[in-house]
């Protein structure tokens, strides 16, 4: 005679059997969508807890908006300064998060082996990049909400429809994300830190964010207009300040940068 052994137990904690051969939680990886959401939430918390990144993504754009709206430093043309500055500062916020912040954070994660270890986890590499992009979008929503409230407090009167604004912001995010990941995946972390901050300052000065493009020499204006920050600034300005329906030219420039940047990042990004 043989005794029959069962594994039935009362549920008592994580992993305790509930029946013969049945375990809870079930062994194995979670669904990819759940893993992406968890990783995106982690990425967002890490970004918001980083004082340097918070300074770059939230405080600097807010200070620029308040300072240049309240003090007549730059001739922004006819109308109130805040109507010109608010779209440019929104574009700057997108660049600071999707390009500068993401490039620096990803570059140091690559240096310290974080990306290598995450790449060996059940989370697919494409899903990791999707989580980073989702984290960027969440951060940008918070940025746009804060800057919009500040601009309204300064007397901003936006025009145009929200669909064009959303399309421009999404296209700008894709363009800057591709360029940021390309930089982070090909340069050393220290070089990425220096280059990302340098590019941020150069595009802030020459991308139509604070100073109108028509204030630059005539020979330089066509080249400056092709920069992603210029296309995003001018596109948002066409909609929010001048009431344009859809600035297709600016959207096309951003789409071109997005395709080139993301394709180059996918081709040349090194995980180690």
Automatic annotation (TrEMBL):
GO cellular component terms, A-Z: ATP-binding cassette (ABC) transporter complex
MF terms in GO: ABC-type transporter activity
Keyword Transmembrane helix appears in the UniProt entry: yes
Domain of life, source organism: Bacteria
Membrane-related topology note: Multi-pass membrane protein
Localisation per UniProt entry: Membrane
Residue stretches spanning the membrane: 54-73, 85-105, 126-152, 164-184, 191-213, 248-269
Keyword set, alphabetical order: Antibiotic resistance, Membrane, Transmembrane, Transmembrane helix
Residues annotated as domain ABC transmembrane type-2: 48-272
GO biological process: response to antibiotic
Residue numbers spanned by region Disordered: 1-26
PROSITE patterns reported in the protein's UniProt record: ABC_TM2
InterPro entries: ABC2_TM, ABC2_TM_bact-type, ABC_2_transport, Nod_factor_ABC_transporter
Identification of the protein by name: ABC transporter
Source species of the chain: Streptomyces tirandamycinicus
